Amino acid sequence: MAPSRSGFPGLLRAWRDRLSPADAGFTVTDGRRAPGLRREELAQLAGLSVDYVLRLEQGRAKNPSSQVVGALARALQLSRTERDQLYRGAGLLPPQDGTVSTHVPAGVQRLAVRLGDVPIGVFTADWTLVWWNTMWSALHGDPAVLPTAERNLARALFGDGAARASMLPVRSERGPDALAASIVADLKDAASRYPADAQLDRLVRELRETSDAFAHQWATPTAAAQHTTDRKTIRHPRIGDILLDCDVLIVPGADLRMVTYTAAAGSSGAGKLDLLRVTGGSQARVNNAPGQYT
């Protein structure tokens, strides 16, 4: 049901009041007065400053970007209809059908929040990271330091920017080239299904022009297996090598990939994840920031 208050500021306040802090991954303590999320909690989830959220709610900040509105919609766990209403309230066209969706359904977010002990990252069809939890940041480094365009796995593998520089050394049991080949296969599939998506087209053109390895993979007619399940050794700068099972869970109807890392109980990997939980879990709780993480 749509909130009774209209206009972007009213929608923002009403949906912030509606969202349960527990569903957003926050611990609810006795004496909490706010019926929903506090303003600073929404700011943290959306990767915005508290002052900017305040100005948006007061109507003093005009013309938020589509990236900001998309991040707020994900943070507020809006339905597609509500998301579109928020875009229109900001004077923007909602995301069009036929383009890669960055919408993360509320049920997916609630599920991921309840699996907080597991590193989880949610990726779009073009392998752009749009949602992650604290354990993901503890394992891979905080995506908050990267601009939006660089939070993309293809750019991390084939680019020469911040995404590539921030990626930790990873060794796959399927071999050194398996991950790269499977990501290119996924991008080919996405490009065939979203031919009108300008951002995806720009990503592919950029990597074909700047990476010989990507250009070669893109021109190779042999189909590689899509990226689904793997066993990886991640070289963490503080803890060293961590052997983990990496599973990619497809979200039907949303065209999202939920990537999880787990280890068998009692294994070395499980012990190192426990250590990460203690030593690396003090960063941002969850995030889906629009452009930068400040």
UniProtKB/TrEMBL annotation:
Q: What region holds the HTH cro/C1-type domain?
A: 32-83
GO molecular-function term, one example from the UniProt record: DNA binding
Name of the protein described by the UniProt record = HTH cro/C1-type domain-containing protein
Positions of transmembrane segments: none
Task: Please give the coiled-coil regions recorded for this protein.
Answer: none
